Amino acid sequence: MSRYFGFLVAVLGLLLALRLAPTLAADAPNTDAGKAAPSDVSLPDDTTPSDAEKHLLRYRFRLGEVVRSKVVQQTKIETTIAGSTQAAEMTSISTKAWRVTNVADDGRITFDTMIEAVDMRQQMSGRQEVRYNSKTDPKPPPGYESAAASVGKLLTTITIDPTGKLLRREKKNQVGVDNLNTQIVVPLPQEPVAVGEPWSVPLDVAVSLDGIPGNTKTLTVKNRYQVEKVENGVAFISVQTVLPPVNDPRIRAQLIQRMTKGTIRFDINAGRVLSQHTDLDEQVIGFSGPNSSLQYVGRFSEELIADNPQASGERALKR
Question: Is 101 in contact with 87 (CB distance < 8 Å)?
């Protein structure tokens, strides 16, 4: 029985780290703003008529502004091994804040990241539910110490180019929340795109082999984006992860936790993401023997908090 709980705890720990990391450009070699690295963002040729209206998608922020968003993550993992079924559920609600500290002439943006508040719960089969709310609980329960230690502190200083390409990341007080190549912002295409024109972004993922510590393999998945429509200056962008061919269910069980499928709303004039919503329901058979199965259900949403006071009205980030 303990091996099931150990597996579920490990998975939920990974999900917690990913959710508390500055959310939604993968690490890549530094390049000049506006110039794509060869394997960074790719656009297929001849995917749309040449006379179709195209839209330039770029991030735009003002020096000193604080951009806040509400992030909700819900995850349920159900595993069946040797006839025994166990389930684990996790819900987290957090307030994320970015304080813009520099906007360069070439459009590069530097900002500090922090988590202002978290409200979390975890429920596992046969065990009492564990909850933690940073606003009301003076002491976190076991397992939430790193989350509590990260709240209200400056976590990282990030520099991106106007397409969202990560140019620099400097860790500050980040405690147990290294983001494992997690995206910081939605990556935008280098060139203007028309409705129906896709672009893709590769992401390297390390997977464990045979459960042996240190025995890992790096696979490349791709997130495929496409503008589905533009209404009132807002681009509705679909996103879906494309996995490489994988025959080993043990590896696929790890990859599905890094998949995404959903919709992004991007304000073209304001130059920022208004919202993101993803919804996954994936199953892997045989990940731990012929009669085993893993069911992964994940829902994620991020909504921009519209009323963002200017920096003069903000409390200082703790360093």
Answer: no
Closest CA to 72 of 25, 117, 26: 117
Query: How many Å apart are CA 207 and CA 211, to the nearest integer?
Result: 10
Tell the residue number behind the tokens 């330039």, with chain if given.
Answer: 56
Smallest CA-to-CA distance from 202 within 36, 19, 23, 21 is with 36
**Contact of 201 with 191, CB cutoff 8 Å:** no
Reported as a single tens digit per residue, the pLDDT across 125-156 is 889 999 999 999 999 999 889 889 999 999 99
CA 169 – CA 73 distance, rounded (Å): 24
The CA-based dihedral angle spanning residues 30, 34, 39, 41, taken in that order and rounded to the nearest 10 degrees: 130
List, for residues 40-67, the tens digit of each pLDDT value. 455 444 444 455 799 999 999 999 999 9
pTM for the whole thing? 0.80
